[in-house]
Amino acid sequence: MVATAQQLFAAFLKERIAPGLRDRGFKGSGQVYRLPDAAHYLQVGFQKSVHNDAREVSFTINLQAVSRATWDAARRARSWLPEHPTPNTHLEAFGCWQQRAGDLMPGRRDVWWSLRRDTDLDQLARELLAAFDDWLIPALRQQIG
């Protein structure tokens, strides 16, 4: 049986991206990873396009940072907010800094990567992990300043 792009994407994150992120200090699995910090939530989320199908998955990366004190205050005022913020949910109105990966990279534009059965997954993993090293992790750390 030939794997669908959806299955390849899940395996790609698990087998290539998660180990690289863990080597860089992140914890997490699936589509959400966090840099441990006692005073802040520092997170990244892999967001899939709603237009994906069995042949192709397009995805982007969302970054989020917020102090735990700010998030706790927002939750006290709005009990419906989740216990922890989530990087793939738009929460800027509640004190969260949020950016798409592409907005932090050269060209400053929204970037969506594509994964298909013929994608060179090793090359894609190298590209994404280099983006984490060069732009994404520094941007997250800059938020706690």
Give the C-alpha Rg.
16 Å
The residue ranges in which pLDDT falls below 50 over 5 or more consecutive positions are none
**Overall structural domain count:** 1
Strand content: 15-25%
Multimer state: single chain
According to DSSP, the number of beta strands is 6
Any chance you could write out the topology, listing elements then pairs?
Blueprint (H helix, E strand, L loop, with lengths): L4 H19 L3 E3 L2 E4 L4 E9 L7 E12 H10 L19 E4 L12 E4 L4 H22 L3
Antiparallel strand pairs: 1-2, 2-3, 3-4, 4-5, 4-6
Helix pairs in contact: 1-3
Describe this structure in words.
Helices cover 35% and strands 25% of the residues. It is of the alpha+beta class. Strand 3 and strand 4 form a beta hairpin. It is globular. The chain has one domain. It has 3 helices and 6 strands, in the order H-E-E-E-E-H-E-E-H. Helix 1 (5-23) crosses helix 3 (121-142). Strands 1, 2, 3, 4, 5 and 6 form a 6-stranded antiparallel sheet that branches.
Could you give a short description of this structure?
This protein has 3 helices and 6 strands; from the N terminus they run αββββαββα.
Question: What are the main properties of this structure?
Answer:
145 residues, 6-stranded antiparallel β-sheet
